[in-house]
Design brief:
This protein is 17% helix and 41% strand. The protein is an alpha+beta fold. The protein has a domain of 113 residues: 2,3-Dihydroxybiphenyl 1,2-Dioxygenase, domain 1 (Roll), CATH 3.10.180. The chain has an 8-stranded mixed beta sheet with strand order 2-3-4-1-5-8-7-6. Strands 10-11-12-9-13-16-15-14 form an 8-stranded mixed beta sheet, with helices on one face. A hairpin with an 8-residue loop joins strand 2 and strand 3. The longest helix is centred in the N-terminal third of the chain and has 12 residues.
């Protein structure tokens, strides 16, 4: 069971959270789909709920900040200095949406748009490193940056986080993995068949012991299936929007 209790290297996807108008409905939905249990951080933190797998922090679900705010998953990239990263974001064509700001006792964060307009977060660990379990059912196992201009996006993330890229055999020509300190940490590519008008975004993939069962549970909970479970050279996966419209993927071993 891969777990971690020390800071993630700069640029590594290290946390993911969801903003929703109904936390109770969201925790019920994701508990059924991914097997998560939840810890309420309390009124001080807006009743932000930490999702747990095997007792380890896997993700977060919190309230939307404005009534008309859409629900979406935010992928956070690790930083040793959120303020310095904010300057790099702004200096390389990105836009700061919120922060940098302290989360008392936990860390320092910001939310930004990259140079192509895709939203992402930055997390400077304090008392909370981010995800404590990964590459397991019920945890983050992969993430794609799906961008309208992949070349511009790759240039941006290289400048801000030092990413290097490698093509992936069998994937679209504009898709490549990105590496942090020589370790593959995710992928960057085009919109990969998203409906016209879909903004650029980071897509989190959560592990599932049984992808088909997870997708079926999601459908029962009000999700819409964007891509039915299918075997691929990279594992079995399905893509969904949850009951609030937030997009996520589930991933597991191929079936025979």
């Amino acid at each position: 069971m891969p777990t971690r209790d020390t800071r993630w290297p700069t640029g590594t996807p290290c946390w993911v959270d969801l903003a929703v108008p109904d936390i109770s409905a969201a925790t019920q939905f994701y508990g059924a789909v991914l097997g998560w249990s939840f810890v309420d951080a309390g009124e001080e933190f807006g009743h932000f709920h930490v999702a747990r797998t095997n007792g380890k922090a896997a993700a977060g679900i919190g309230p939307i900040m404005q009534e008309d705010q859409p629900s979406f998953w935010t992928v956070y990239l690790a930083s040793d200095d959120a303020d310095a990263t904010a300057k790099l974001v702004a200096g390389n064509g990105g836009t700061i949406l919120a922060g940098p700001m302290d989360i008392p006792g936990n860390g320092r964060m910001l939310v930004a748009l990259d140079a192509t307009g895709a939203a992402f977060g930055v997390w400077q660990a304090g008392g909370q490193i981010g995800i404590e379990i990964y590459n397991e059912p019920g945890s983050l196992v992969w993430e794609d940056a799906r961008l309208a201009d992949p070349a511009a996006g790759k240039s941006f993330y290289s400048a801000v986080f030092g990413y290097t890229y490698q093509p992936v055999e069998g994937a679209p020509d504009d898709y490549g993995t990105f590496s942090v300190n020589g370790e593959v940490a995710g992928g960057v590519g085009g919109m990969m068949g998203a409906p016209e008008g879909t903004p650029g975004h980071w897509l989190p993939y959560f592990g599932a012991a049984d992808v088909d069962a997870a997708v079926a549970a999601a459908e029962r909970g009000g999700a819409t299936v964007l891509m039915s479970p299918m075997n691929t050279p990279f594992g079995r996966m399905g893509v969904l929007t949850d009951l609030f419209g937030a997009v996520f993927a589930v991933h597991g071993e191929n079936t025979e």
